[in-house]
Amino acid sequence: MRRAALVVLAALVLVAPAPSRRADAVAPHVSAVGAIAVTVASVERSITFYSDVLGFEKVSDVEVWGGDWERLLGVAGLRLRVVGMRLGDERIELMEYLTPRGRPIPADSRSHDRWFQHVAIIVSDMDRAYARLRAAGVDHVSPAPQRLPDWNAKAGGIRAFYFKDPDGHALEVLWFPPGKGAAKWQRRDALFLGIDHTAIVVGDTARSLACYRDALGLVVAGESENWGPEQERLNNVAGARLRITTLRAPAGPGIEFLEYLAPRDGRPVAADARPNDLVHWQTTLMTADTAAMERAVRGGACAIASAAVVATRGRELGFARAFLGRDPDGHAFQVTER
To answer: I need a labelling partner for 93 at 20 to 30 A (CA). Which of 172, 223, 253, 278 fits?
Structure first.
């Protein structure tokens, strides 16, 4: 009798849903959000910018080519250089397609176009960080750092600033007041501390949740609705009103949905977009079983961009098997298995 009770108790523990998940959601398949990768025109130029201006450290430098990588990324004849850059506990990857070269970011890109993605870099002192960015001559998106208003209980007191890297990718620096954000973001031992999340513009939050929460197994960690002059200036979008939803895996940075409730004229990702185009970002999702993940994704709200799960010849980029997927708005994610 005692053994039966223990079995029942164990079963209840295994199936009990996290408070922020749907009651019928399956256990998470994704063990961590890993490196957030971005395609760049010149790795050397980007290394200089991310290290000298933003404090990242170069930790790896690899070139890959061949049929396995072509099948994974869907780019024929590729030769790809990937440089890992670390800031605190988080990493980005700078991807330069030595061949074939892709297209530049559209010159008229806006923060509410649905190809928009950025990483939010946490700073210990916004005024010093902004002075560093000004001295480096970065292109502004926001006219200046914005302090979100106190009436917004979830975001009030946070300071943020949007700018661009040398290729025109949007980036954000973010400062959390005491009591907001993870405890590690209250450190004062460095100016640039790490990456809290990557943000993506989505057309419909419910549809995106069907991909990231229901198929991939991430958990909703926070929700808010932001508007007002500070938000408009931050994004440089007149009349901006955003529904913001943050999801997280057990480890790594979050994935933040930015749904523009207004204006609604953000443009979709080009139908022929490819990973060698400079508009391309991809978020690494780590799992113990790529085959199970591929089955969970196929036929649902997400799409498989690779032909199937691809076994790479070596572990040059730290994984043995992977597939590339796309969410309902065309943002890429790469599911990897070590």
So the answer is: 223
SS3 160: strand
CA distance 223 to 245: 4
Within a domain: 334? no
Residues 133, 173: contact at Cβ < 8 Å?
Answer: yes
The residue among 124, 154, 119 whose CA lies nearest residue 252 is 119
* Closest to 109 measured CA to CA, from 161, 157, 181, 164: 164
Measure the CA–CA gap between 96 and 115, rounded to whole angstroms.
19
The answer to the question of residue 44 being in a domain is no
Strand partners, 65: 79
Reduce the DSSP state of residue 52 to 3 states and report it. Answer: helix
**Distance between CA atoms of residues 56 and 171, nearest Å:** 14
Task: For residues 250 and 33, give the distance between their C-alpha atoms in angstroms, rounded to a whole number.
Answer: 8
Domain-embedded: residue 85: no
Tokens for 8?
């029942």
Rounded distance between C-alpha atoms, residue 295 and residue 182, angstroms: 33
- The residue segments making up the domain with residue 182 are 117-262
76-102 per-position pLDDT tens digit: 999 999 999 999 999 999 999 999 999
Q: Is residue 238 part of a domain?
A: yes
Peptide bond preceding 100: is omega within 30 degrees of 0, i.e. cis? yes
User: pTM of the entire structure?
Assistant: 0.90
Residue with tokens 């973001």: 185
Instruction: Say how many domains are in the chain.
Output: 1
Q: What is the CATH number of the domain that holds 186?
A: 3.10.180.10
Cα–Cα distance, 260 to 170 (Å, whole number) = 17
